[in-house]
Amino acid sequence: MEHQAARGELVVEHVSKWFRTREAAVHALDDVSLNVRAGEFVCLVGPSGCGKTTLLDVMAGLTTPDSGQVLADGELVMGPGRHRLVMFQEAALFPWLDVRGNVLFGLKLVAELTRRQRLDTARDYLRLVGLERFARANVHQLSGGMKQRAALARALAPDPHVLLMDEPFSALDALTREQLYGDIQRIWAARRQTILLVTHNVREAACLGDRVILMSHHPGRIREEFPITLARPRNINSLELASYALEITTALKSYVSEVVE
Amino acid sequence: MTEITRMRRGVVASLFFVALLAAWQAMVISGRWSPVLLPEPASVAAYLWGAAADGSLFEAMSVTLRRLFVGYAIGVAIGLPLGLLSSTWYFVEDTIGVLALGLQTLPSVCWIPLALLWFGQSEGAMLFVVIMGTVWSVVIATDAGARTIPPVYSRAARTMGSEGFHKWTRVILPASLPFLISGMKQGWAFAWRSLMAAEIYVTILTGFGLGHLLHYGRELHAMDQVLGIMLVIVVIGLLADKALFAPWERFLHRRWGTGLKPG
Fold first, then answer.
1. Which tens digits make up the pLDDT trace of B109-141?
2. Which of A26, B63, B151, B260 could form a disulfide with B207 if both were Cys (CB 3.0 to 4.6 A apart)?
3. How far is B4 from A231, CA to CA, in rounded Å?
4. Alpha-carbon distance B124 to nearest alpha carbon in chain A (angstroms)
């Protein structure tokens, strides 16, 4: 079944990962396999400690699995690479650079660009996230939502094949979050980049994903997946979305009670 | 800060120092202390004026500052990389790190006998003492700083393709800037102290520094000279702080948003 891997395709094959300390060994990921098609928006949901962030780290190449492998664009992932950029829980913006400097950081590592092209690209992405007026602002002057917008611009600017998002909205207030859901959907609709979002917020997952994949913990496993067929753009407060979320939440709760029993 | 507040703060500061001088003058006038032990401000000023006019003051300042800058630069050049290494590499932490911790507690005056035996009464001995006084505190401050960098910076950088030398120079180094600066500042203070100790204890013929002037002031019972040179040492320390470190600290505060006073 050889096939030409499309740009942005992500294949996780039988990945297992243990974290061993002197006191205990945690089975973070147990034989996890997952396919993300090019241009797909997949959300990974699970209780805390289910290994979803570890899985994202493995896909990013920041963590090496004990067994199994990840293929990105059909190639074995051996370490981090700029075709798979990560947006972290905290903005992780560099405080020693201004907003534009942060966006330029990744662009400067793209050797084939000229200085002019880098500056133009940075400006375009800052405009895309609505921060063009804040290009020269310092990071500490931005609000939480603006910081995540800047982080989004930084992650998108080098044109990665896959965008990995690790609970990027969890520290934001509800209103700011809703605004960002709108922005993400708009940007994704325009660019059709592969996105994998890790979250513990079921509604958020149902609002953004083509598919919602559920994980359970001890050990971290993929349990079930829910295709979301709602039309886009989606409103997080809509009733149809709420019924999806209810269904997913019910499934999620059943795994959590399994562990308790 | 408004212009008015700035002026008011300037006036208050000036008043404070004028009051300090006035108190000094008043103590002299009271006659309770011998003028040999407590000269009046004017005679200290007269000494400084004289020493400046015959060039001996500037000669001593240039000798001292040259030693200081060379020793400090070498100390920082050794201390910074060692500190960064010991923050990431157990081997260096367990060896150089422990050594630094131990030697930092050793007052730099204690290096002088060793330096004299090894290098004789030479510039080399001076330099050695200054470097030993600087390097360990820089190592420790840098190490402590680099350890507090949030790991997410390094993770984010790696996903964007920054590894190795690029990561060190563009991420780890700037991320630890606040600690590097406080480390360098501490190193500066230690270098200054060690050099003064060395100059007071060791007479070498290749140059008389401020420490020597201080020493001879004592030998000659010239209290105006002792106080005058002490004043010069304090002023140089203040100016160095303002000229060398203040611009960096302002940059830090602006970028990081730290050190902003409320109101």
1. 899 999 989 998 889 999 999 999 999 988 988
2. B63
3. 61
4. 39
**B132 with B195: CB under 8 angstroms?**
no
Q: Is the ipTM of this complex over 0.85?
A: yes
B window 217-256, beta carbon within 8 A of A: 254-256
Return the domain boundaries, chain A. Answer: 10-83+160-260, 95-159
How many other CB atoms are found less than 10 A from the CB of residue B134? 31
Distance from CA of A80 to the nearest CA of B (A): 5
Please, are residues B157 and B167 in contact by the beta-carbon 8 Å criterion? yes
pTM: 0.80
What tens digit of pLDDT does each residue of B170-197 get? 998 888 888 888 888 888 888 898 899 8
**Per CATH, domain A10-83+160-260 is 3.40.50.300:** yes
Q: State the residue range of the domain holding B75.
A: 39-256
Residues on A contacting B at a C-beta cutoff of 8 Å: 60-62, 79-82, 84-86, 88, 90, 92, 94-98, 105-106, 109-110, 138-141, 154, 158
CATH code at B225?
A: 1.10.3720.10
User: For B14-38, what is the mean pLDDT?
Assistant: 92
Please give the Cα distance from A103 to A126 (Å, whole number): 8
Total domain count for chain B?
1
Task: Determine, yes or no, domain membership for B173.
Answer: yes
In a domain, B134, yes or no: yes
Q: Given CB atoms, is B151 within the 8 Å cutoff of chain A?
A: no
